[in-house]
Design goal:
Distance between the termini: 35 Å
CATH topology: Jelly Rolls
Order of helices and strands: EEHEEEHEEEEEEEE
CATH class: Mainly Beta
Structural class: mainly beta
Oligomer: single chain
CATH architecture: Sandwich
Number of domains: 1
Bound molecules: N-(carboxycarbonyl)-S-(naphthalen-2-ylmethyl)-L-cysteine, fe (iii) ion
Shape: globular
Low-confidence stretches: 1-9
């Protein structure tokens, strides 16, 4: 619920009793940490008007089922040439939309709670899953700074998240990520294999027929 005081009370800096679940060494889940932030979803739609969601092509030539865009100083992108962070949106030829202050504050607050003070993400990758979309098991290795965590925010429809080990062959654990869940992945979990199972159909009051996911990264 939005109050006249703006978003200050939405990210639960004032709610010290948010429970912390430890998922693995360095990985912490704050359930519903961003739940009341309907404004996050609104900001995402605004970003997508400048840098639209697109289905990237992998270096291997596959079209990704997840649609992506970015905000911040650089954005993650992919094409036949490879994966990289680019300061210009290849789709528009212009800079990515700036990262909203609310995004930044949420990411920094969550990181600090998880024991990573001083996390100043300059990039935010935004994923949109429609029913049937999935993200295969992978590692996030395109950032310069593995010493900093990645902070993720799930919005809208729930997803089954796969969290594996440091080698692909390790069988992943599965858990559900729901609207407003924030996870901080750092330390020994930073390079863990992870993915998202095929999104089930559904309708969410905040997002409609999709799941949105923000990942905040120190990439440059
Ligand atoms: C575990 N996104 O964009 S967020 C990605 O739900 C990505 O859209 C998923 O994986 C999504 O790269 C998962 C949770 C997440 C993010 C980064 C991680 C889990 C992570 C980095 C290391 C280990
Ligand atoms: Fe990832």
């Amino acid at each position: 619920m939005q109050s006249e005081t703006g978003m200050g009370d939405l990210f639960s800096e004032v709610t010290p009793e948010v429970e912390t679940e430890k998922l693995a060494d360095g990985a912490f889940l704050f359930r519903r940490f961003a739940e009341s932030a309907a404004s996050l979803v609104e900001l995402i739609w605004q970003i997508a008007q400048v840098s639209p969601f697109r289905h990237l092509v992998t270096p291997g030539g596959y079209r990704m089922s997840v649609a992506m865009t970015n905000c911040g100083l650089a954005g993650w992108t992919s094409d036949r040439q490879g994966y990289r962070y680019a300061k210009v949106d290849p789709e528009t030829g212009a800079a990515w939309p700036p990262m909203p202050l609310e995004f930044q504050r949420l990411a920094e607050t969550a990181a600090e709670r998880a024991g990573f003070p001083g996390f100043r993400p300059e990039c935010c990758l935004i994923n949109r899953y429609e029913p049937g979309a999935k993200l295969s098991l992978h590692q996030d290795r395109d950032e310069k700074h593995y010493e900093f965590p990645i902070v993720s925010v799930s919005l809208g429809l729930p997803a089954k998240f796969l969290f594996g080990g440091l080698v692909r062959s390790e069988r992943p654990r599965r858990f559900r990520l729901e609207n407003g869940d924030v996870v901080v992945w750092g330390g020994p979990s930073r390079l863990a294999f992870h993915g998202v199972d095929t999104l089930a159909d559904g309708e969410h009051p905040l997002t409609g027929r999709c799941r949105l996911n923000l990942t905040f990264r120190k990439a440059l």
